[in-house]
Amino acid sequence: MSPQSDDKRQAAREVIDILHEISTLLNTNLDRTELSLCVSLIENGVNPDALATVIKDLRREGEATSRAPPHESPE
């Protein structure tokens, strides 16, 4: 790999580290991988507000599913 490529990777890592620190302070519960995916989606044109809404909705659905009693199978 070229030194320039290594520099870009290091810079990207530093950006994600900073975003993760901010994310932790804001209690978003997003890990570095999830943050990287969000950044990539936004860089590719996804609306940040829409992405935030989807993440919140998915979390709500996940919480509701985990609180629901298990389904009984018919015998």
UniProtKB/TrEMBL annotation:
<protein>
    <recommendedName>
        <fullName>Mitotic-spindle organizing protein 1</fullName>
    </recommendedName>
</protein>
<dbReference type="Pfam" id="PF12554">
    <property type="entry name" value="MOZART1"/>
</dbReference>
<dbReference type="InterPro" id="IPR022214">
    <property type="entry name" value="MZT1"/>
</dbReference>
<keyword id="KW-0206">Cytoskeleton</keyword>
<dbReference type="GO" id="GO:0005819">
    <property type="term" value="C:spindle"/>
</dbReference>
<dbReference type="GO" id="GO:0033566">
    <property type="term" value="P:gamma-tubulin complex localization"/>
</dbReference>
<dbReference type="GO" id="GO:0031021">
    <property type="term" value="C:interphase microtubule organizing center"/>
</dbReference>
<dbReference type="GO" id="GO:0051415">
    <property type="term" value="P:microtubule nucleation by interphase microtubule organizing center"/>
</dbReference>
<comment type="similarity">
    <text>Belongs to the MOZART1 family.</text>
</comment>
<keyword id="KW-0963">Cytoplasm</keyword>
<dbReference type="GO" id="GO:0090307">
    <property type="term" value="P:mitotic spindle assembly"/>
</dbReference>
<dbReference type="GO" id="GO:0000931">
    <property type="term" value="C:gamma-tubulin ring complex"/>
</dbReference>
<comment type="subunit">
    <text>Part of the gamma-tubulin complex.</text>
</comment>
<dbReference type="GO" id="GO:0044732">
    <property type="term" value="C:mitotic spindle pole body"/>
</dbReference>
<comment type="function">
    <text>Required for gamma-tubulin complex recruitment to the microtubule organizing center (MTOC).</text>
</comment>
